[in-house]
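Subject: sequence -> structure tokens, single chain

Hey, anyone have a minute? Need the predicted structure for the following. Not urgent.
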Amino acid sequence: MTTVNEAAPPALPARQVRLVVLGALLGVLLSALDQTIVSTALPRVVADVGGIDDLPWVVTVYLLTSMATTPVWGKLADLYGPRGTFATAIGVFLAGSLLCGLAQGIGQLIAFRALQGLGGGGLFALALSIIGAVVPPADRGRYQGAFGAVFGLASVGGPVLGGGLADSLGWRWIFFVNLPVGLVSLATVWTTVRVPRTRRDHRIDVTGVVLILISVTALLLYLNWAGRTHGWTAPGSLALLAIFVVAAVALLAVESRAPEPILPPQLFRVPLVRVGGVFAFLSGFTMFSGVVYLPVYLQEVAGMSAARTGLAMLPLMLGIVATSMGSGMLISARGRYKPLVVTGAFLVLLGTLALTRIGTGTPYLFIGAAGLVFGAGVGLTMQPVITAVQNSVPLQDIGAATGSVNFLQRMGSVVGTALLGSVLSSRVASGMADALSTVFLVAVPFAVLAAVVSMFLVEMRRPAAPGGAPAQPAAEAAGD
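Reply:
Had a minute. Here:
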């Protein structure tokens, strides 16, 4: 029988809960924007500080450090509480943002982006942990649906804002703009979140952190260098792949014995966490195929400016926003999430299949419709799985569970971005339109796998009020 966590978060006044959610959403906005706002300003960066050969690392190093530290922040939230941990993460992110804006060379910018990523890795997972810590299980879906909406807005608004700032105030302002938003988020969460916690002895799993960094770095280097420069089977490439495998195996062994593991193995004995983690990886891979490479098509093939591309992405954004918020409300009202996730996974598959058909001269009506379907699927799959995972573990493990699943989702998005980027680079000689259709074609098998895995997720019902009777599988509770 599938059960949910029965410990009730501390009861807070509705106004205070709304303020907490606002502060957390601002943190998510910073994290989401930083994945989209930088790319459109990169040409300006090169013109100012040089270093075109090292330019990809401005993006890659942020993804690397943010992804590798996501489960670390989740564990720290369980050990020290979400408020102080969130404050630390956003402080590190803002320090990195300030230094990025002041960088005088490409080497400095890369180093400061790594620092920014260290903090950025905690913003999304910790914001979800804060919601899990202060919002009763019955209401989490409604609030967390807004998180997907923020991501949708950032995916469209980021390129437009980045291009606009780079053209007007200069590229440094794509980093300086983080400061006022981040300070408001920090102040809001710090003054409103009051979560009592029991002090307990703890140890930081330093070995686990190091092995995560080594394994993820080796994998990203393999995907970035092997596919684009050295070849998939070159000796250096295979050496990187071997380092990844060895470090990953060592990580599994270390985490099974660590007193306070970063990725607690016992959490993955929970069916929702285990299957939800696999689904998060696959959906993250597929999701970024449309979010990252559809704008490339609109600019490089359709010839749109950055601002027009943002407008052309509105159908995809509206799909994400509408279904993210709608799914949250449905989960809060009905307590069931699986039909939403399965529907969303098949919509993403349908949208991905449609995007394989785009080329030169494709009518925008077709592109907009494909983007709307794709976005609607993304909105139905992003948050419901995390909400269900949070409701399936004890309150004291919410941070680790959220961080672990979010880590796998980020891992999927980074692997997808790197692998599909390598496919694009290898195919671009045949024409950008053909290369991009190939990119979407490569994403199709991952979308198929995500749809299949979604059907193995365990449905459950949870009590409308926290602390009620244990949940039952939906088939037993509903009699269907």
